[in-house]
Structure formats: C-alpha cells, structure tokens
Amino acid sequence: MVGLPYDCLANPLGAVRSTFDKAMSSDSSAAALDGKDWGAAEVFRQFLFDDGGLSQVPWLSSSTMKWVQPNTLVRFRGMIQDMLGNEFYVGAYKDGDKWITNKFADGSHGPSDASSDVRIWERRLLYCTPVPGQNSWVECAPDAMRNPYISAMSPLREKRQREDEATESDADMVEPGHAIEDSPNPKKMREDGVAFEPFNLQKVVTEGSTSNSSTPPVERNSVSCLVKIYDSPESDLKLNEVFEFVGIFTFDPDLTVPIDDKEVMDDFCEDELLCLPPSKVPRLHCVVHRKLGPSDLVSSPHLELTTPVIKEIREALIGHLTAVLGGDRLPAEYILLHLLSRHNDYNVQVHARVDEVAVGKLSLNLTCFNKENMSVFGNNLKLVIGSLMPFTECLPLTVDYLNSVTLAPKKDYNTNRLVSGLLQLAEGSHLTIDETPLQSGTLNSGGLENAQVLRSMMESQKVHYDFTYYKMEMPADVQFLILSEGKSNILPADLVLPFHPSSVDPASGVDGEMLKAWRWYLATMKSLPHSIDPPLQKAVEDDLVAARQADRSLSREDFSRWLTMGRLMSVSFGATSLSMEHWQMVKELERLRKNRFQGNL
User: Fold this and answer.
1) I need a surface site. Which of 139, 243, 523, 529 has the fewest CB within 10 A?
2) What CA–CA distance (Å, rounded) separates 86 from 111?
3) H or E stretch including 502?
4) Has residue 261 got a pLDDT over 80?
5) Backbone φ/ψ region at 197: left (φ over 0), alpha (ψ -120 to 50), beta
6) Three-state SS for 2?
7) Distance of alpha carbon 93 from alpha carbon 166, whole angstroms
8) CA-CA distance, 446 to 421, in Å (whole number)?
C-alpha cells in the first residue's frame, strides 16, 4: 500500500495543498472553492479520529512553545475572549497555468505577474485565552506535553533548545532551513485598495495577574492564542465558550515591529493592536474544533454506573462536604444541589398563580461566617469546590475593591479590543463571594455599578458588557456561593442558610479515584435531561397552591426555587424525572432550613 504523500502531523500544509491540487485537477474552478472545503478537513478528521492521530498532536502551552515547530499540527484549549471580525487574504492565485492556495497559512504568496488571477477569501479571527479560573487538575497530562519531534531534531536544534530553557528566552524556535514548510516573510499586501493579512495579535496574559486585577489570572503553563477559523458558520462559535482547537501553528519572530517606529507601524498595519509581537501570541489556523462542556473535562471512573453506585457516590460526597463544614450536614445537602445547578433557557409552566418561571440557577448564601471561622471552614470549602469544579473563582468583597475595579468587560475603541473583566467567565464556572472582609463604607459610582453588575449576573445570569455608548446583555452560566456573617444585602441569593458547625476536626483525606468519581458525578448528573410527568405535575401544583394559601408572602421566586430543587434532587440520584420521593425530600430540606433560619433570628 502506497503511503500518503504528506505527513498530517509534521507537514499539514502539504495535506492542504495536495488536496487543493486534487480538487483543481477534477475540473473545478478556483471560484467554485470560495468559502468551501475541498476535502482537506476530511483528511485531517480521518487522521485525528479514525487513525488515532489526535493523541500524537502536542498541546500548545508556554512550555511546549520552546520546541514546537512552525507549520506543524498542535492542539489548543481556551475560551473565546474576543471576536475580532473577519480578515481578507489572498486565498488562491494563479502562477502560470497552475493555481496555488494560501489557505491555513500566514502571509499571502502572490503571483509575480500583477495581472494574474487571484481569489480573495475570508476567515474569522478569534482571540482565545486560558479559561479563567481553570483548576490545575483540568490541565492536560504531562505525557501530552511531550515533544513528538525530538528524534528528528538536529544537534544544533537540541543545543538551541537547552539554551532557551536555561535563559527562558522566546528567541527563534527553529534554525533556518528546519521548518517543514517555507513561510514567506509576511507583509501587508495592498491591491486595488484591499488590505490583506493584518496580523491580529494580542498580548499574552502575564503570570503576575492577581485576583484584584481586571483581567482574570491564568495558569502558569498557559498561552493566549489568535485562532483563525475557516468554513464554519458564525453560530458555531460564541463569545465565552470553551473550545479545543486543532490547527496549524505559525510563528515568526521577524514579524516584531519596533514600538518606537511609529511610521513603520502605521504603514505595516491599520491597527496598532495588530503589531504586538507574534512571539508572544501564537497563531493557529484551525482545521478541527469542538466545544467543551463540563463532562468533556473530567475522566470517567472505573465503576459500574448503576443506580446504587450513583447513590453511593452521592452519599460519600455529602459526607465529605459535611466533614469539611464541621459536621453540619444541612448546608452540605444544599451545596450539593447548588453545585449541580446550571442556568437553562427552558421554562416550566406552573399553574399555581404564577407565570412562566425560569428553572435552573440556584445561588446560595451561607451565613454565620466571620473572619475567624472563615479561615478554617470557608477556606477549606473553597479548596474542596476547586477540587470538584473545573473553573472556580473567588472574590473577596470590600468597598475599596468594588470602588476600584471594573468587573464587566468593556470595549476599548482605541485598540478595538474587548477588555476582559472578572465576570467574563466560561460556561459552568463557579464564583465564591467572600463578604467577611466587608466593612461599612461608601460606594462611589463605579462601586455601585459593580454591585449592580454582580447582582444582575446572579439573578438573571446576564452580564452587561460596556460598549461606552450602549450596554449589551450577554448570557452567563455561573454558580454563585456567598459566604457572609449575615444575610447579604448586596447579593440576595435564592437560598439563605445559617451555618452551624459542631466540630473543628479536619476532614479526612480523599484518594484520587474518589475525587475522579465525584467530578464525573457532578459533571454528568448536571447534564441529565429532566421532566415532570403529568400526574406528578398535578401533585406539585397542588402543593404550591396549598403553600401559597398558608403563607401569602411566598412569591414566584419561591416556587421557581422549589421546582429547581426538585429537578436537582432528582438528577442528584441519577433520575431524569421527578418522583414523589424526591419531591418530599425537597420539602423536608426546606422545612429544616426554615426552622434553622427562624431559630437563628
């Protein structure tokens, strides 16, 4: 059997151009390929998925950039932080009698004869960053960071790599002549007034970011990336979604432009933003991408997943949360439901003197925390949540903090960039608000706006992005946990529950397999579909009507919370429909919470 004329891993551009030549040889015109795939994507899918090539593709990170070679295939995981619009480029041109393509490549080769035919194509530009709050256990395994090209590296290249690692330099990563494909010296091309190939490059987020910065901190072993998307509908990729991209990595340190050479910069590109050093922000020409949900970030446990096993995992997790909370089981039960919650766009019609209510979110406010017990129980609780959820952030709330930061993303028209804020978070993120440092003070206009942004995000799961001349609502899916001494006045949560620990004994350690089981459990159960059968729906409606008659202070929000808790209680046992047993468990939890709240007054 004759092998392929190209190596998809080490020479992906060879695959692109070989499939292009094949398409052109079948009497296709270059115009007929505008905005279309001519078979290159299928070649990469076969290599990656059918032939098992995905495991050979190295991850792109700050450490692997020391050895990964330009114009080779890499994987990158990140959140879409900004959408930079579309870019025009010379997609194909005719050189003599032959058509040549520039697709999936930086720079735009062009015909030597200005009168030759060219096809102007378009690609989307996405600025992707490390996922805010991503915990270390989500990072890819060390063996995924190995260098698959190490055996093919020359002695000179190995010496250069050792020097780079010793000095932590971002110097040239390949010796001249060692690149798999020749990369042109990219310059901005102008023809008939059309600008081609602007270099939309962003600053890499620095390691020195702090939790009080307007930009979320990132993992040390992470990079930001400019991803170029081809032949994909705009609806496939949305702001703040987490994706895994497989594509062709490009890098050229010669593209760096001196910042003081203003005249050169203005001539080189239309936006100063685009002239950031390409050695700091790599570019990736995407050939395959997939959206990542919570279940895609956890590994499956080696267990027989039956209903008894799910119940056993559930009870073990509640037991551990109870130990972390000083023996207080009631908040442990509520925290489990809280961690399983997610914002949904679907509605449930409840005929209990209420309109349609959104079911999904369940924010939780645990009270009776102070600076003393926060250092024990609060910090341990945050550590546990970070070990269970893939993306977690903690915000210590103070008046000075609210007055000094910008939480919502804001458009910078000078750079035409969306400047990230702490509340630009990925789907399924968990946010813990620590109000124990909060003292009396006066909020300025910025502080009042930040408090309103937080409250709006918690209540409606929407963040108002600031575009200076107008505000735009962006959907969110973020779980809020507030730890405070008394009921929070800034963030009125769906549930308020006093915290009553009975012991300060530390919780016992948890082995890695159990942690994997808990992570899988939370990610899988929260994604289960759910329904209420008509007979039980009637019983639920009757309970809601009776509750309203007994307590006229109950509101639509209370009914929404009970329905949400019913769904969460069901899925916590692995069930996809509400049962009377689970509904009764919800009512009992609410009775205990009400009694505790009244006893705490």
Assistant:
1) 529
2) 23
3) none
4) no
5) left
6) coil
7) 44
8) 14
Cβ-defined contacts of 462-467 (< 8 Å, 24+): 463/408, 463/409, 463/423, 463/424, 464/408, 465/408, 465/409, 465/410, 465/411, 465/418, 466/406, 466/408, 466/409, 466/410, 466/411, 467/410, 467/411
State the residue for tokens 């001249």. Answer: 176
Full DSSP string of 405-431: ---S-EEETTTTEEE--TT---TTEEE
Q: Strand locations in 53-117, DSSP E? A: 72-95, 98-101
d(CA 426, CA 407): 15
Q: Determine phi and psi for 77, rounding to 5 degrees.
A: -120, 130
The percent of residues above 90 in pLDDT, for the chain, comes to 50
Q: Which amino acid is at 310?
A: I
Task: Report the greatest alpha carbon distance in the chain.
Answer: 88
Between CA 472 and CA 477, with CA 473 as vertex, the angle to 5 degrees is 145
Distance of alpha carbon 409 from alpha carbon 62, whole angstroms: 25
- Residue 506: per-residue pLDDT: 74
**DSSP for 206-255, written as a single string:** PTT--TTSSS----TT---EEEEE-S--GGGS-TT-EEEEEEEEE--GGG
Residue 156's pLDDT is: 40
> Which of 467-476, 486-495, 552-561 tops mean pLDDT?
486-495
CA distance 493 to 363: 5
Q: How many CA atoms lie within 13 A of 454 on its CB side?
A: 28
**Helix residue spans in 12-146 (DSSP H):** 12-25, 40-45
Determine the pLDDT at residue 153. Answer: 41
DSSP strand E in 420-505: where? 429-434, 462-466, 471-475, 478-483, 495-498
pLDDT, one tens digit per residue, over 348-407 is 433 333 344 445 889 999 999 998 889 889 999 999 999 999 999 999 999 999 999 989
For tokens 């978070």, the residue is 425
